[in-house]
Amino acid sequence: MQKHRKYRKQGRNVLANANVKLPEVCRNRLKSFISEGLAKRGFDSEHLHSEYLSKFCGQGTASPAERREAAIWKWKDSERTNAATNARLRGMDRGYNIMPRVTFYNFLRVAQHQVSLVLGELSDELVLGSFSGGASTGRRRTESQPAHKFCGKADVTKDATIYVDVIHRLSELYRQHQVFYELNLVEGAVLFTVPKKSDIDRCACKEPEINMFLQKGVGSYIRSRLLRHGINLNDQSINRRLAKVGSITGDLSTIDLSAASDSITTSCVEALLPRDWFLYLNDIRSRQVVVDGVITETEMFSSMGNGFTFELESLIFWALMRTVAYFEGVSGVISVYGDDLIIPSGMFEAARTVLGEFGFSLNMDKSFTWGSHFRESCGGHYYNGEDVTPFYLRREPEHLTDLIRVLNQFRRWALADDARQFVYPEAYTLWCELARFVPEDLRGGFDLTCDTQLVDGRHQKYRLSRVTEKVYVPELGSYMHWQTLNRNRSWDPNVGFPAQSTNKVCRKRRAKLGAVADRDLLFFEEW
Question: Domain residues for 318?
């Protein structure tokens, strides 16, 4: 293996970073990669041209402060809409026809039945939840591993404190190790933003630790119950497959909702869920959110960051669509993954009306039905059965891994359809133009999803491996986290703690022998 020059850092010898910085000419070319290199000869290339830089956040786009301000303005605007929705739903006449010849009362009756079938009885064991690796109100991102959240003080809202006693009553282990014995009362969640598109960020919320623990328990439970009814929230490929079918037959429509998780209002949840379930979820959610230091009472029921939002919205949309299909007399596939909905095309307009009544707005730029051969769901884009899924340059390209990721994804796009190489003969030349910046010994393999090795049909020699460093993780917290994941294996405290990876620092390592891309992943010129 090629040895890298060592340099001194804080008195230690450290291997030089193999994830080298890209020269300026390569960075600029990568940003204009599609617009100046690939001709527009069909829907697939036009779609890629329009999407490649649509989520780019870097030079030439809005500043981070502007994107954050736009995101918070949109969040507040959603709250104004939510307030109107809450008032309308709470005051709606039960005899109002939400659909032709279907009263609001009858619609709710059927929808509530659908929700009850999934949820079943509320039980005490639901409080035994878990943690994710996300930041919380009491743990910064650098200390957000689940193990940390089991130790020290835990933030909690006032309404959720009563369930800590239930946790201790049900778990001797938690009582024995005095987990969640030190509580810190907080007002609620804290809003923050993450990059989304070139002109706007996405809002999310950091939840208090105890609330997060309880919310994750609910989320896992709803996920498992939905699976019994044919909705698998662990597999996005189901929606992608159905979207492809819909693009061919037109019988299936894909629906995408605008700000769906921020549009789940309290009145909507109260109307659809059994009373005991609503009261429990209402207790463990954050009713207030701190926005730039200002405490705000929310009109929405839960936001991104809440441990059950994804599963709850999936349940609500599934129940609403099933109810629409029932009253419309439409049969066919209904599939839900968060706010990605797939429904029979014959009920599209009725579904649009009902969703609007419950405070949800369709994103018509990403919703497709009769009259279009295009369908999009769960990241899969299809035009008349052809995979036209684009890829994105999301940030300013700086390092070798940024280049490898784009080139591997471009290869996937260019080879997704057998005819594409004939239609775009310049694709291989374009790929080679940038591939020359990748060292020869980092080529090979077959995994187009990685950014540590450039796929080109050769026997792989070396690959980049991200440098990891051990971080302190409490031993007790590791044990508690293990208990939530797997209770049937013995725990070995001598096993090393999880390592924390950095995105930019890499070493060059010898790759395993024998892994070569097959012909389906090769340009004709590489055969």
Answer: 65-383
What is the token pair recorded at 62? 């809005």
Number of domains in the chain: 2
Q: Would you say residue 57 lies in a domain?
A: no
Whether residues 339 and 408 fall in one domain:
no
Statement to judge: residues 327 and 408 lie in one domain: no
3-state SS record for 291-331: ECCEEEECCECCCECECCHHHHHHHHHHHHHHHHHHHHCCC
Distance, CA of 392 to CA of 389 (rounded, Å): 10
348-381 pLDDT per residue, tens: 999 999 999 999 999 888 899 988 999 999 999 9
Q: CA geometry: angle at 52 spanning 367 and 403, to 5°?
A: 140
Report yes or no on 60 lying in a domain.
Answer: no
**332, 352, 383 — which closes off a domain?**
383
C-alpha radius of gyration, the chain, whole number: 26
Over the stretch 375-429, which tens digit does the pLDDT of each residue have? 999 999 999 999 999 999 988 899 999 999 999 999 999 999 989 999 999 999 9
Work out whether strand 374-377 and strand 288-291 pair parallel, antiparallel, or are unpaired.
unpaired
The beta-strand segments (E) located in 34-133 are 97-99, 102-103
Burial zone of 479 (CB within 10 Å; 0-12 exposed, 13-18 middle, 19+ buried) = middle
* Domain finish residue from 383, 407, 429: 383
